[in-house]
Specification:
It contains 14 helices and 19 strands. With 449 residues, it is an alpha+beta fold.
Length: 449
């Protein structure tokens, strides 16, 4: 539950050949983030920003800041081949040689990778960006490198009985069924037995998954679920933090409720390196192998693992972006400065200011109701920040909003917590869950989706 005391897992200084870092790099950033754009502009004036319709309609981009960048492009969405190709064409016509493309959200990953291929930023492996989102390519490459993963099978065509039969015959149930590409825990189902498989696939289509969408089925892994957040320069992390979820993310889909009131359910806490050196050593070794298999060299990463009861680590998946939800604010408290500044410095300069954690023990909670319904009470930001030890707070919903809780990322409110000891942290987390509940009126049967 604490942060690392040294900027590297080994505790030693990092040495870089700064001569190889060219000043005033030409950088493309995909999606709008005020802090990241500002941090990048402090390093280079040759910045190109690509916004999609969601950014324009919902993210309130600051046009005064964008006046300072070289060019602003707009695409309908980052999965639009035509839109991304038009950005590449204009940059090519301008004679711009792009050094780096930064994508910090799940839904811009494919478009950013395709842009890199078109602009020849990534000439060694044209499927590399695909392996960062398609879990089948990702797991195949990681397995070949010798990393333990859950046994899995691809369902490339749900209309072909052969693909479904392979799942029935090759996997031990229960299994997890989810989209092959992205989506986090959205449209993810735990399937208890073979007899439930057809119904689970039908439910995925009802949940908004396109009938032609490809799936991955994998055996269920029991154990503690970890997330590892790191920023890499070559084979060395500029920072690497191991955190544990209070409960595995998929257990939240099953409507799990705490055994007793006031027990944290949703969220995660940073595991102290000084108290768990063996775990950090194992995680660092596994992460380096995963990076080598997927071509991760200079990137921010969010890696998810399971730790079996015997201590064995099992790879789940990795993203070359910051973790979602509460993870960005939690990392900022660990670093002692905004994590987007760290991303800019790490990716462009290959160095960081040493982390200066605001508290020895850090974690975060997602405050959520115990079931779906219409919100009748939710704490506001001022209420949450009034509690000693609450470092950051954010509300995503308001009174009267519906909450379906049909996936673990149905956010309501976040708090980031800090304390001086493990005991103080655990007591604080219990107090926050008790004092700041999100209450709902259950849906009437006719209101159920």
């Amino acid at each position: 539950m604490s942060s690392l005391d040294s900027p590297t897992p080994s505790g030693g200084p990092l040495e870089f050949d700064l001569e190889e870092i060219r000043p005033q790099q030409h950088v493309v950033v995909c999606k709008w983030d005020r802090e990241l754009v500002n941090a990048l502009l402090e390093i280079t004036s040759h910045l190109y920003v690509v916004l999609d319709d969601y950014d324009i309609d919902h993210s309130n981009p600051d046009w005064d800041i964008l006046e300072r960048v070289e060019r602003v492009y707009r695409v309908r969405e980052f999965d639009s081949i035509e839109g991304i190709a038009s950005v590449a064409a204009d940059l090519s016509l301008q004679g711009v040689e792009i050094d780096r493309i930064i994508s910090f959200t799940e839904f811009s990953q494919f478009g950013a990778g395709y842009l890199g291929v078109l602009l020849e930023v990534d000439t060694h492996d044209t499927m590399r960006h695909v392996s960062y989102r398609d879990k089948r390519i990702m797991k195949s490459r990681v397995q070949k490198a010798g990393v333990q993963t859950a046994t899995w099978r691809s369902v490339g065509d749900r209309s072909r009985n052969r693909d479904v039969m392979r799942v029935r015959e090759d996997l031990k149930f229960p299994i997890v069924l989810k989209p092959a590409s992205g989506s986090g825990t959205i449209n993810t189902r735990t399937v208890a037995s073979q007899s439930d498989l057809d119904d689970a696939m039908a439910e995925l289509s009802k949940g908004g998954l396109e009938p032609h969408s490809q799936l991955i089925a994998e055996e269920f892994i029991a154990g503690r679920e970890l997330h590892v957040d790191a920023l890499w320069h070559g084979k060395e992390p500029l920072f690497l933090i191991v955190s544990a979820y209070y409960e595995p993310r998929l257990s939240l889909l099953e409507g799990k409720v705490p055994d007793e009131p006031g027990v944290p359910l949703d969220g995660s806490y940073i595991i102290p390196r000084e108290q768990n050196p063996d775990l950090y050593e194992k995680v660092l070794h596994l992460h380096r192998v995963v990076n080598g298999a997927l071509g991760v060299e200079r990137a921010v990463t969010h890696l998810e693992l399971f730790e079996r009861p015997d201590g064995q680590l099992v790879f789940s998946e990795i993203a070359t972006r910051l973790g979602g939800g509460w993870i960005g604010p939690l990392l900022s408290e660990y670093l002692g400065y905004n994590v987007q500044r760290a991303v800019a410095d790490g990716l462009l300069l290959g160095r960081l200011d040493p982390p200066c954690p605001t508290h020895p023990y850090l974690g975060a909670l997602h405050l959520r109701p115990t079931g779906p319904g219409t919100i009748t009470a939710i704490p506001d930001v001022a209420q949450m920040l009034s509690k000693n030890g609450v470092l950051r707070a954010q509300c995503w919903r308001a009174q009267g909003d519906p909450v379906q809780l049909d996936h673990p990322s149905d956010w309501c409110a976040f708090v980031v917590l800090g304390a001086d000891s493990r005991e103080q942290y655990e007591a604080l987390a219990r107090q926050v869950v008790t004092e700041f509940p999100v209450e709902v009126e259950p849906f009437a049967s006719r209101e159920q989706p």
